[in-house]
């Protein structure tokens, strides 16, 4: 688990779940090869780097302390990491559901593929 607030790895603490539990996992890099078979259903939210940065400048300024720090983190690490992930993994092709989430007020489902087909 990566703690973006602290910019550091954190230990993961396991817990027992009921056999028929529904678990929703949120994260950026969850369709990497060693993880993708763990998911019953995967959803990829497509958002451009420009929109990602715009949202971060509104949402994360209090978290990181300044617009400059938000920009530094996103341009220096987060957005390049996401671009590398998209180019190496192609999560949009792998996901069962693809949502165009460029406009947060009007998301559009672009594909809904039944798992296993």
Number of E-type strands? 5
* Share of helical residues: 25-40%
Summed up, the helix count is: 5
**Parts with pLDDT < 50 across at least 5 consecutive residues:** none
* Radius of gyration, whole Å: 16 Å
Describe the sheet with the most strands.
Answer: 3 strands, mixed
Overall mean pLDDT score? Answer: 93
Structural class label: alpha+beta
* Spatial gap, N to C terminus: 31 Å
Helix-strand sequence: EEHEHHHHEE
Biggest β-sheet: strands ordered side by side in the sheet: 3-4-5
Inertia-based shape: globular
Strand content: 5-15%
Tell me what you see in this structure.
The protein is α+β, with helices and mostly antiparallel strands. The protein has five helices and five strands; from the N terminus they run ββαβααααββ. It has helices at residues 33-36, 49-59, 61-64, 67-89, 91-94, and strands at 2-3, 8-9, 43-46, 97-100, 108-112. Strands 3-4-5 form a three-stranded mixed beta sheet, with no helix packed on it. A two-stranded antiparallel sheet has the order 1-2. Helix 2 (49-59) packs antiparallel against helix 4. The longest helix has 23 residues, at 67-89. The protein starts with a strand and ends in a 5-residue tail after the last strand. The mean pLDDT is 93.
Give a quick summary of the entry.
By secondary structure, the chain is α+β, with helices and mostly antiparallel strands. The protein has helices at residues 33-36, 49-59, 61-64, 67-89, 91-94, and strands at 2-3, 8-9, 43-46, 97-100, 108-112.
Give the topology:
Blueprint: E1 2-3, E2 8-9, H1 33-36, E3 43-46, H2 49-59, H3 61-64, H4 67-89, H5 91-94, E4 97-100, E5 108-112
Parallel strand pairs: 3-4
Antiparallel strand pairs: 1-2, 4-5
């Amino acid at each position: 688990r990566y703690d973006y607030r602290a910019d550091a790895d954190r230990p993961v603490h396991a817990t027992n779940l009921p056999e028929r539990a529904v678990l929703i996992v949120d994260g950026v890099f969850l369709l990497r090869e060693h993880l993708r078979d763990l998911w019953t259903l995967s959803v990829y939210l497509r958002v451009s780097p420009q929109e990602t940065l715009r949202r971060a400048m509104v949402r994360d300024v209090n978290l990181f302390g300044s617009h400059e720090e938000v920009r530094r983190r996103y341009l220096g690490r987060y957005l390049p990491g996401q671009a590398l992930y998209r180019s190496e993994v192609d999560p949009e092709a792998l996901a069962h559901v693809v949502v165009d989430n460029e406009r947060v007020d009007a998301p559009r489902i672009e594909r809904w593929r039944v798992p296993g087909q």
